Each structure stands twice: as C-alpha cells, then as structure tokens.
Amino acid sequence: AQSVSQHNHHVILSEAASLELGCNYSYGGTVNLFWYVQYPGQHLQLLLKYFSGDPLVKGIKGFEAEFIKSKFSFNLRKPSVQWSDTAEYFCAVNARYGGSQGNLIFGKGTKLSVKP
Amino acid sequence: EAGVAQSPRYKIIEKRQSVAFWCNPISGHATLYWYQQILGQGPKLLIQFQNNGVVDDSQLPKDRFSAERLKGVDSTLKIQPAKLEDSAVYLCASSSPLLTYEQYFGPGTRLTVT
Known about the structure:
The structure holds two protein chains of two kinds.
Chain A: E1 3-5, E2 10-14, E3 19-21, E4 24-26, E5 31-38, E6 45-50, E7 56-58, E8 64-68, E9 73-78, E10 87-97, E11 100-101, E12 105-106, E13 110-115
Parallel strand pairs in A: 2-13
Antiparallel strand pairs in A: 1-4, 3-9, 5-6, 5-10, 7-8, 8-9, 10-11, 10-12, 10-13
Chain B: E1 5-7, E2 10-13, E3 19-24, E4 31-37, E5 44-50, E6 53-56, E7 65-68, E8 75-79, E9 88-95, E10 104-105, E11 109-113
Parallel strand pairs in B: 2-11
Antiparallel strand pairs in B: 1-3, 3-8, 4-5, 4-9, 5-6, 7-8, 9-10, 9-11
C-alpha cells in the first residue's frame, strides 16, 4: 500500500530563515505529487504540484519543491520564510495506473511556526 | 468562482446519536470526495463520487457511515450511530473532469462526539 511520510511534526523558524520540509513516499510506479497548505482558520489549498517534466517545481508565495525519483522524495523549500507562512503543510501522492489515477494519500502534516 | 461549501462548520453530539454533513462542490466539478481528518493526521479518503455514482468507498465504515449524491451535485455524509472515535474534521473536496488530479477543498465540518 502507498504511504507518505513527513518526518518533521513541528518546525519553528525565525523570519528570513530558510525552510526545507521533508516528504517521502512509498510506491514504485509513476506518481503525481502535491503539497497542500492550511493557514490558521482556513481550508486546505494547493501550494504546488508535480506530474512530469522538470523535477523542480515552483508554487505560490515563493515555495518550490524538488522531485528526486531515486530517493522517493518531494521536499518543500523556501529560501526565506515570513511570519505569514505559519501554517500546516501536507504532502500528498497519488499513483498513476495507465490512464487512471489512484486516491490521494496524505502525510500527517508538518506544522510550521515562524517567529517574527 | 465560488469554492466548495460545507455545513455545518461545527457539530457536537453524544455517542450513539446520528449526524449529517452537507457539501456543495464547485460548479461543474463532476468528482466529489469526502475525507476524514483526525487530529494530528492527514486527511483520509472515505468515499469518491463521479457524478452521482460511487467510484471508491473502500475505506468507508459502511456499518455506520453512508453518503449519497443523488443529483450529481450536492452530497450528504451521514454517521449513524456515532462513536467517540468519529471525532474529526470531515472535509469535502471536488475536482473538474479535465483536472481530476487537482482537488479543491471546503472548510470542513468539525465533529465532536462526547
């Protein structure tokens, strides 16, 4: 069965610090990869996605993620965080089987707290 | 465009009572999903509809949970009877026929079972 691991439960950074959140998945085939973000009091929203092509993808608000197939990883990065980045971040994966797609499997989430 | 709407936003019930949640997806989105998010975990898919047909309900506890999407638009999720372990946020999401891999989430209903 597919699974997604996010190794950091809670990350605390000061403003302007660099961010990297880890995400590893277990599935040997072709996958779509996502990062979702949930700001306090708001609903889950898509931050960025990878389907194919350039393994370095850029999302909203200066976030980027790199797909490393050999490591089954899709880590999220931002060079300089802001207080407004305080949120919970979820990595998600779905497998591709020919022309169809499997269910979206989420990691447990990483809570990011940015100190002003 | 209007987002995914859910109601109620909060619900507190006693165990063994029943409860129902409502979801209105984004207009034109044929696929609708219900997720359960327990505190400290990521969302877990309960059921997926394509129009008014069920695509996947393999993780739905069918002895107590039921869901329907009669006209291919709105959907309701029901729990009867509720257990303490059903305390969670219930999320509804939808996706369009052309971009089925991009799901748009509603605000969720936070259920507390006492």
